[in-house]
Amino acid sequence: MIRINLVLLVAVLASALYLVNVQYQSRQLFSALDRAHADARRLEADSERLQVEKRAQATPSRVQSLATVKLQMRTATPAITHYVSYGSAAPDAALVPGDTASGAPIP
Hints:
Elements lengths: L1 H56 L2 H10 L38
């Protein structure tokens, strides 16, 4: 009878230790899940903030001011516009000897 009681006592102690270990692991997992949710909320807020900054950086007025100030660009006017025509090609006399642009074989 004592032997059975001793075996049952050891079984109860082992199951109690196992229960304590499972509860500890459960608390650790819950706190890790809570941290992951907090990180996800922080990343979502950062993403929204960056999207707002991106839209603010890409406004047409800001792009126009940066183009004129930093890149020193100006609007195109007929006075500074150069027109290119695709008319007749330059005369063959202007070609350098050995030039294959005319399609003629090199002598």
